[in-house]
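Researcher: Good morning. I'm working through a list of sequences from a screen, and I'd like to move beyond sequence-only analysis. For each chain I'm collecting a predicted structure so we can compare shapes side by side. This is the next one on the list. No need for commentary yet; just the structure.
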Amino acid sequence: MLYTVLIVFHVVLAASLIALVLVQRGPGATMGAAFGAGASGTVFGSRGSASFLTRLTSWMGVGFFAISLSMAVIAARSGGVAEAPDDLGVVGQIQPLPTTEEVQDGEAFQPLLEALDQDEDADIILEPPPD
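Model: Good morning. Structure tokens for this chain:
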């Protein structure tokens, strides 16, 4: 429940942070004039909206990182992410490497030799290592 609330708040905070960054006035841009950057009797004061928006962006960024770290800690302590149900399990199908004794005895090549015997178009000839 707490994790879901944090995710919702995290998404809202991320969208607000994006909007806040896009609203800010860059060097040479005039977007800040809409918030009273050129007038002294505005809501944001004589310095305009730059100082207020910069501070707000900083605090929203700190909140964003704090929520990100909190969600990471909660996920780590709760056992992490569950295994995906559509996992193909490819790693479980990998055959272990043959031991040195199997290679020296030629037993490691048996499955490969049998597969090559069934394939009539095979151009590869494998022989066990010499003694």
